Amino acid sequence: MKSVLKPFLITFIAASLFSAGAQAQHVSRHTEEFFSEFYVVQVKPMEFLLTYHFPQTDRVLVRIKDGEKNILFAEKTLVYKKYKKFFDLSSMKDGNFTFELTDGETTYSRSFAVVTETKRIATIQKNESFFE
User: Fold this and answer.
1) Counts of helices then strands in the chain (DSSP H, E)
2) Signal sequence span per UniProt (predicted)?
3) For residue 124, what is the DSSP state?
4) Is-above-0.85 flag for pTM?
5) If we measure between CA atoms, which residue out of 96, 92, 90 comes closest to residue 113?
6) Of 33, 35, 29, 87, residue with least CA distance to 54
7) Of residues 24 and 10, which shows the higher confidence score?
8) What's the half-sphere exposure (Cβ side, CA atoms, 13 Å) at 33?
9) pLDDT score recorded for residue 32
């Protein structure tokens, strides 16, 4: 009995996985499962990943602007299916900034702030004896 069930279960699991994989491939930018084409994700405290899927044209313009609309970074690049770039912002001064991506007539933007925080803490020095 066990020898008959084991191949059946393996076949069932394999078919289920194949079916799930096939369904995942059918997600397009026009379905409810696809939420956005333009993503900005913080991957480390001062590092961001900008990703753009399904470009309308073969070139996109990516810029970082400060709060006064000055362009601090600009890159016009050739894309096929996806634009993906890591940005290290550790050298930027405090302030408000915007990631901006232009694809044909469409412009996407995402604002962010660089803020330096200081902590005030008290610590016990290791050299001092508690009992004197």
Assistant:
1) 1, 7
2) 1-24
3) -
4) no
5) 96
6) 29
7) 10
8) 6
9) 38
How many other CB atoms are there within 10 angstroms of residue 108's CB atom? 18
CA distance 97 to 83: 20
Domains annotated for the chain, with CATH where assigned, are 31-114 (2.60.40.3080)
Report percent pLDDT > 90 for the chain. Answer: 48
Q: In the predicted model, what is the mean pLDDT of residues 101-109?
A: 93
Whether the per-residue pLDDT at 77 is higher than 80: the answer is yes
Q: What is the mean pLDDT of residues 46-53?
A: 92
The pLDDT of residue 88: 94
Distance CA 69, CA 66 (A): 5
- Give the pair of three-digit tokens for residue 33: 């499962």
Backbone angles phi, psi at 78, to 5 degrees: -80, 130
Report residue 61 CA to chain centroid gap.
18
pLDDT band at residue 45 under the 50/70/90 scheme: confident
CB 77 within 8 A of CB 83: yes
